[in-house]
């Protein structure tokens, strides 16, 4: 298991999405470490990340979140990184390093900073999905 949990935020639907993403990333990491079907696990993970970001961005737009631009820019940056990573799916060592040293630390930081602020805003405006 690569990552067991992340810190919760003030808006429960975001916690549910974050927890689901952990399932996908752990499934992918298991495939990387145990010679599983990396391509399939990666596609599932990437699709989940895209859905996760689209969910947050739709709510940010709906409720005119004050920091929507930097939040969307960060989503875009990491999605571009993940799209480029598709070219390295045959390099298990690279993938292990990337997820351990880059993606997981980024995810934890993203949740602990901008997602925490976003979730607090959603709670403050009584956002609904």
SSE layout:
Layout: H1 12-33, H2 38-62, H3 68-85, H4 92-124
Describe this structure in words.
The mean pLDDT is 97. Helix 1 runs antiparallel to helix 4 (92-124). The radius of gyration is 15 Å and the shape is elongated. It is mainly alpha-helical. It has helices spanning 12-33, 38-62, 68-85, 92-124. It starts with 11 loop residues before the first helix and ends in a 5-residue tail after the last helix. The chain is built from 4 helices and no strands. It has a single domain (12-124), classed as Up-down Bundle (Four Helix Bundle (Hemerythrin (Met), subunit A)), CATH 1.20.120.50. The longest helix is centred in the last third of the chain and has 33 residues, at 92-124. Helix content is 76%, strand content 0%.
């Amino acid at each position: 298991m690569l990552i067991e949990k992340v810190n919760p935020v003030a808006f429960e639907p975001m916690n549910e999405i974050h927890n689901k993403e952990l399932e996908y990333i752990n499934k992918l990491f298991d495939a990387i470490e145990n010679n599983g079907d990396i391509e399939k696990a990666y596609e599932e993970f990437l699709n989940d990340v895209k859905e996760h970001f689209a969910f947050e961005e739709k709510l940010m737009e709906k409720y005119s979140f004050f920091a929507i631009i930097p939040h969307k820019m960060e989503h875009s940056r990491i999605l571009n990184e993940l799209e480029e990573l598709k070219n390295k799916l045959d390099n298990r060592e690279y993938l292990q390093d990337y997820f351990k040293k880059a993606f997981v630390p980024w995810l934890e930081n993203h949740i602990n900073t901008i997602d925490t602020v976003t979730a607090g805003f959603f709670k403050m405006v009584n956002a609904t999905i």
